[in-house]
Amino acid sequence: MRVKKTAVTIALLGVTLLASADNELITKASPYGVQETMDKLEQIVRSKGLSVFNRIDHQSNARSVELEMGAAQLLLFGSPKLGTALMQQDPAAGLDLPLRVLVYQDGQEKTWISYHDPATLEHLYQLQGNPAVAKAQDALKKITEAAIE
């Protein structure tokens, strides 16, 4: 019984460590404000033939309930073909699809662009060896770099 409890504890600890290690956030400074950075990002996404599913203005939503926060916008976008290839392998990957990029301003009025590295999806879900992961990783890197040029 004691061995079983120890094994369960070790397994849970491993899962917790894996989950935190696999959640790599990539953040880049933008020389533009939130609106301009997001406008550029959305234009680039559309020019690449990707679908824009939603653009969420968190600051505007906060104001709608009489709360204040700094400028922050989230773009949800992707390729249904690429996303479907991932979800066919593991439907749970739909929890992290479509791709998301957050553009926000910090307390020092500096603008940042952030996203989760798609490579983390390989470990969160059963996606090892799926070429769509590398394609998403490359696309996000190029799109976000172009948005802050």
Describe this structure in words.
The chain is of the alpha+beta class and 149 residues long. The chain has one domain (24-147): 2-Layer Sandwich (TATA-Binding Protein), CATH 3.30.310.70. The protein contains 6 helices and 5 strands, in the order H-E-H-E-H-E-H-E-E-H-H. Strands 1-5-4-3-2 form a 5-stranded antiparallel beta sheet. Helix 2 (34-47) packs across helix 6 and helix 4 runs antiparallel to helix 6. It starts with a helix and ends with a helix. Residues 5-21 have low confidence and may be disordered.
Question: What layout of secondary structure does this protein have?
Answer:
Layout: H1 2-21, E1 25-30, H2 34-47, E2 51-57, H3 58-64, E3 72-78, H4 80-89, E4 99-105, E5 111-116, H5 119-124, H6 131-147
Antiparallel strand pairs: 1-5, 2-3, 3-4, 4-5
Helix pairs in contact: 2-6, 4-6
N→C terminal distance? 60 Å
User: How many independent structural domains?
Assistant: 1
Q: Kindly estimate the percentage of residues that lie in beta strands according to DSSP.
A: 15-25%
Instruction: Summarize the amount of helix as a percent range.
Output: 40-55%
**Total helical segments:** 6
Strand order of the largest sheet: 1-5-4-3-2
Number of strands: 5
Indicate the CATH class: Alpha Beta
Radius of gyration over all CA atoms, rounded: 18 Å
CATH architecture: 2-Layer Sandwich
Biggest sheet, open or closed, and with what strands and sense? 5 strands, antiparallel
- Helix and strand composition category: alpha+beta
Can you identify the CATH superfamily? TT1751-like domain
CATH topology: TATA-Binding Protein
Oligomer: single chain
Are there runs of 5+ residues with pLDDT below 50, and where? 5-21
The general outline is globular
Instruction: Give the ordered list of helices and strands.
Output: HEHEHEHEEHH
